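Researcher: Go.
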Amino acid sequence: MKINSKGNLIVGTTAILIIALLFICIFVVTSINYIQNKNIGIESNDNFKYIIDDYTQNLELNCRDAIDEATQKVFNGLPVTNSENQIKKNLNKILDKKNKEYEEKYDVKINSETLSVENTKSPWKILFKIKLNIKKGDEKYSKIVEKNASVEGLRDPLPIAKLTIMSGILTYDNQIHYKTALSTYMLLHHLDSPESYIEATAPLYIKKCPYDPYIHHGDPGVIEDCLKHGYFHESADGSCYLCRLEGKGKCPHYGLEVFIQTHTPLKNESLSCPDHVVFADHYNGEKINPDDWNSLILDSSHRKKYGLINDG
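Model: Structure:
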């Protein structure tokens, strides 16, 4: 039977519609696959970003732990001759363990290296620079990360690093109890009135003094509160935390000082009580209040710094 022109038009139109429908189906399937693949890629990127963020956010705590391990070494009676290298070694060991945990948990390969441990402009912070290379599948992350770790709340290593645990120093009640260690040290260095420092005490933990400017220590009740809470103070002459670990009474860095409090009825001149003076500078001062057994022994410059110039 012969198909007329009307029939040819119907067949042609039907063919075009079928072809168009096929193209639409192909487009839809392709689009769905693209969207699915894109979503997988987004999920993968988000997961990789989460791993990086989680790892780097915990670095500050890891850095602090590395410092604390160096401090524990001092309290164990072992010398720390190079605090930067010791802390780098501690942190690398901590991160090696952490890297293995992340590989097991997230199937991610992490290589880390502590490049440096440095002082900052603030004596309360230590700067760490850590090189990270992280790889998961085809995704990679490489960066030198910088973190500041606080020393607040850590133990002060200077007294034991300087005098050693064999000197008889004790630590309890959040204080360092010098017993006869300081008086013996002063005798060996031919310093005045070593008996004034028998049973002297000092804070064990680093705590930042809130009374800033320091001249406010001369206000009523402030110096008493400072001593009660065992606060530390910033000092251009004091030793930084890294040097305190090495037993250095003073150093070229911007550091810390704390009062070593005497408990004596003696009124004679002796070493001024900021720790860098006792352990390094060795110049004398006098009691703020000669009649107070627990009065600080201070030189004129420190009296001025703390607003205690007119006391006594």
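Model: The longest helix spans residues 5-57.
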